[in-house]
Write a structure and sequence with these properties.
699 residues, alpha+beta, eight-stranded antiparallel β-sheet, 16% strand, Ntn_hydrolases_N, transmembrane, transferase
Length: 699
């Protein structure tokens, strides 16, 4: 099925109220996995388009493999084990407590009866929960949470960027939304040959933002509550201000010389009383951004043109004109026509089966295709026992094949990429995984040539992911980005928008990327093309048709390997959700030929890799994974929902007035009667004047 190009018509009704999705039931065949629809069946027609000290880390306690022959953990047996442990008051190696509404919370992992939101920012997860309380669904909550993240973590996300969203509705329908940024109409393949830095900093690095368009498209198709209601909490937050979390403060400080040199443009980062850059715990307000969000929400004078009249201002009106002016002031080549021609691609998700479950993820230029490749390979390897060193060797070998596969991905709208579509389909097939299996040795690794990469694409940095699962079985995995931290380092004071540097995600002929890797011919620039992305928003459907893992991450090329490891650990190795995320990670991206291992990786694992010829570098938690951060929620067979936010890698506490502070991504859960957030201080940590983000239940 070809993708849909979605634009907005002035005739969209303001009173649009999409139907409520039915709750999933085992009697509804539409939500059961049908192997006849599996694009991995080789049917060509089926392809669719730390800050934390080491002492803060918790020990990992694995659940042992059940059964000698089946490499995949059986879901029902896992739940029985979890239930037995919960009865003892101990689950996944940590002590739990349960409140009167049925929420179980240990301050890190949340277990709740009805649903959950997991994101980078406490305040934003609370906004997502508030939207669920108002009667919204997972799509509404995901959009509201993401808009908020753009307010707080403007270095990584915001309406000046774009992203990908995978939606799986309770009725079994799934869709992928591609609102990736596009190259300007006057962009060309060799536009950065004379000045490669121009792809990273300044107006020439800016691509056409897609985030607003993507959210409006998803809301028009699947949202439940009014468009304005989704945006209002973030408008209020931007206007009243929020206290600077340590992660944001550290990233501001890292770029202090630049911001001080461009103080007039970046005034919102400065304390208006002292004239200094904002510090941890100080109040940041974003008044101009709040006004822009009001326009997009269709408030005030923009309420008369229909539900999405403000979206039209972004792509066909005053906001588009202002962004063009701001970017071109810094050397950009944007035009208002570039904005008016933007569209969101809505298409079928990619699918495969893994351990008896259905995996749904996003098509290219997202990297979901190579996640499928990796899972297909893993299923064919004897790597089901996490207590054997060969399992980690196979894990790394699969990562190398994943990385090689990524070199052949790109935007299918590019004729060069389209001509390679048969190969992309092959990468996702079970038969290809069998062929790869024959080329993986149990005893040794090989040099990069063995894995037959075409080229190597560039990798993004400033990214944010969130996962949502609601009580009606609707699930959303959403990843957004402005690429590098602070995007192109272009901020428009009038609109408050931080503009992306997405042009750096294209491959530039003759220039290696930040990892000293060769560029990909499939990712060269052409006008209005969307650059390759490492993002991998993914949803796994359990054997009974109900949503299971809702997962994704940030961190460039580490996203795919991080998500891949999490799925292997949870479904193949039987880790609980908490240990799945916090356990030390490995990473290999083929070139350079080094395995990076996080501190805490056991010695026998490292030795087993070295004995097979791997070069291993051990680095700090988060450093080895490149800051790859995984946000995840999971629907359990019991009907409850668990949520974990990966604060081990993105978070940390700064020190202020002699006290430690956490900057911890926040998961929040929905119980059957209400949504009242509660917070508990982590043991051994003193909080003073600043509440750090951390997981919490809602009751």
């Amino acid at each position: 099925m070809p993708p849909n190009k979605v634009r907005f018509s002035p005739t969209v009704s303001r009173s649009h109220t999409p139907p409520r999705s039915p709750s999933p039931t085992s009697s509804n065949p539409s939500i059961l996995y049908n192997t006849d629809d599996d694009p991995d069946s080789d049917d060509d027609d089926s392809l669719h388009r730390s800050l934390l000290p080491t002492t803060a880390r918790l020990p990992v306690r694995r659940r042992r493999r059940l059964g000698k022959q089946n490499v995949c953990m059986r879901f029902g047996m896992t739940v029985l084990l979890a239930a037995a442990l919960l009865g003892l008051g101990v689950l996944f190696g940590v002590i739990f407590w349960e409140n009167e509404e049925g929420i179980v919370d240990d301050g890190i992992l949340v277990d709740a009866p009805r649903g959950a939101v997991s994101s980078d920012v406490l305040a934003c997860s609370r906004i997502g929960v508030g939207l669920l309380k108002k009667g919204g669904n997972a799509v509404d909550a995901a959009i509201g949470t993401a808009v908020c993240i753009g307010v707080v973590n403007s270095f990584a996300s915001g309406i000046g960027g774009g992203g990908f969203m995978v939606v799986r509705e309770g009725n079994g329908r799934s869709q992928a939304y591609n609102f990736r940024e596009t190259a300007p109409g006057s962009a060309s393949r060799d536009m950065y040959s004379a000045d490669p830095l121009g792809a990273r900093v300044g107006g020439l690095a800016v691509a056409i933002p897609g985030e607003v368009h993507g959210y409006a498209t998803a809301h028009a198709r699947s949202g439940r509550i009014p468009w304005q209601d989704i945006w209002q909490p973030s408008i209020d937050l931007a206007r009243r201000g929020f206290h600077i979390p340590p992660t944001l403060a550290a990233i501001i400080a890292k770029e202090a010389p630049f911001f001080q040199q461009h103080r007039e443009e970046w005034g919102f980062l400065f304390n208006q009383d002292t004239g200094e850059l904002l510090q941890v715990g100080e109040l940041m307000k974003r008044e101009s951004y709040a006004r822009t969000l009001e326009v997009i929400a269709g408030k005030g004078e923009y309420s008369r043109g229909g539900v999405y009249s403000g979206v039209k201002q972004f792509y066909n009106g005053s906001i588009a004109e202002q962004i063009v002016e701001a970017a071109n002031k810094h050397g950009g080549i944007l035009t208002t026509e570039d904005f008016s021609r933007y569209f969101t691609v809505v298409e079928d998700t990619l699918k495969t089966s893994f351990c008896g479950r259905q995996v749904i993820t996003c098509p290219p230029p997202c990297s979901g295709a190579v996640l499928i490749e990796g899972l297909n390979i893993a299923e064919r390897l004897d790597m089901g026992d996490p207590d054997k060193s060969i399992s980690y060797h196979y894990l790394v070998e699969t990562m190398k094949w994943i990385s090689a596969g990524r070199t052949e991905l790109g935007d299918p709208a590019d004729p060069v990429v389209a001509s390679n579509s048969e190969r992309i389909h092959q990468l996702q097939s079970k038969s290809y995984a069998e062929a790869v299996r024959a080329n993986i040795s149990a005893d040794t690794t090989y040099s990069w040539e063995h894995y037959n990469p075409a080229y190597e694409p560039v990798d993004p940095k400033g990214t944010s992911h969130l996962s949502v699962l609601d009580n009606d079985g609707n699930a959303v995995a959403l990843t957004t980005t402005v690429n590098l931290y602070w995007g192109a380092k272009v901020h428009d004071p009038q609109t408050g928008i931080v503009l992306n540097s997405e042009m750096d995600d294209f491959s530039i002929p003759g220039r290696s990327n930040a990892y000293r890797l060769e560029p990909s011919v499939y990712n060269y620039i052409i006008p209005r093309k969307r650059p390759l992305s490492s993002t991998t928003p993914t949803i796994i459907i359990e054997e009974d048709g109900a949503p299971g893992l809702v997962i994704g991450g940030s961190g460039g090329s580490r996203i795919v390997t991080g998500v891949f490891q999490a799925i292997v650990k949870n479904y193949l190795w039987g880790y609980g959700l908490l240990d799945t995320i916090k356990s030390p990670r490995l990473h290999h991206q083929l070139i350079p030929e080094v395995v990076t291992a996080e501190s805490g990786t056991e010695k026998w694992i490292l030795e087993g890799l070295e004995e097979r010829g791997h070069v291993v570098e051990q680095r700090g938690i988060g450093e080895a994974s490149g800051g790859s951060v995984i946000q995840v929620v999971k629907g359990m067979a019991s009907g409850r929902v668990e949520a974990v936010a990966d604060w081990w890698r993105k978070g940390g506490c700064g020190r202020r007035r002699g006290h430690f502070f956490y900057s911890v991504p926040f998961s929040t859960a929905v119980d059957r009667t209400g949504l009242i957030a509660f917070f508990r201080e982590p043991p051994g940590i003193e909080l003073n004047a600043y509440q750090c983000d951390k997981p919490a239940g809602v009751g």
